[in-house]
Amino acid sequence: MTFIPEIAAPAPAQEVHPSVTSKAKRLIDIAGSLVGLAITALIFVPLAIAIQLDNPGPILYSQVRCGQNGRTFRIWKFRSMVVDADRLKHLVHNEAKGSIFKNRNDPRITKVGRFLRRTSLDELPQFWNVLQGDMSLVGTRPPTVDEVMKYERHHFQRLLVKPGITGEWQANGRSEVEDFEDIVKMDVAYQHKWSVTYDIILILRTIKAVFGKSGAY
Predict the structure, then answer these.
(1) Which tens digits make up the pLDDT trace of 106-142?
(2) What is this structure's pTM?
(3) Angle 196-211/180-193 helices, nearest 10 degrees?
(4) Are 95 and 88 contacting, i.e. CB atoms less than 8 angstroms apart?
(5) Number of domains in the chain
(6) Residue 168, phi then psi, degrees to nearest 5
(7) Would you tell me how many other CB atoms lie within 10 Å of the CB of residue 119?
(8) Strands 136-138 and 2-3
């Protein structure tokens, strides 16, 4: 794990967010990640076959992301795009506002990939990131390095907590939230409202959203 001084995190006077040091949150993360990894193991083979038949290449996709206080780590997902999709990003129009990238009809997404995203199955390998401690079940979504390099001063507050598989805006909007400033407001609101109970509420809301297939593309 490395640290990027240019996006160094909060000022020295900033207190560590209580979610970062919460033993209860960490225990829930460990338990949840073990369950998640067990589910991942059960469906890995059929998903791997489907991904290969649709678009031959790596089963898993990894990318360097920025976590708590700007520390970088490698995130893992089931591959939902064509091989070398990152190199084709400049050819796709960004429909979102600010330091995020979204396109409802991104041509790089494979047929199986659309199913994986709609059901959030592509996120399952991130339970490994949670078990390692780079992520939490609930937090803020980890941005890419190039996104963080474009941050304005107030955007850095969203990096004060561990990134999560789900969070405030995923549970309450998922892909329908397309303005980065709205995402920042929701991430900061999460930090103010945080508690172990609130994390559990967001997890339950996320499960409901996933099974209802609402707001994802």
Answers:
(1) 899 999 999 999 999 999 999 999 999 999 999 999 9
(2) 0.86
(3) 140
(4) no
(5) 1
(6) -60, -50
(7) 14
(8) unpaired
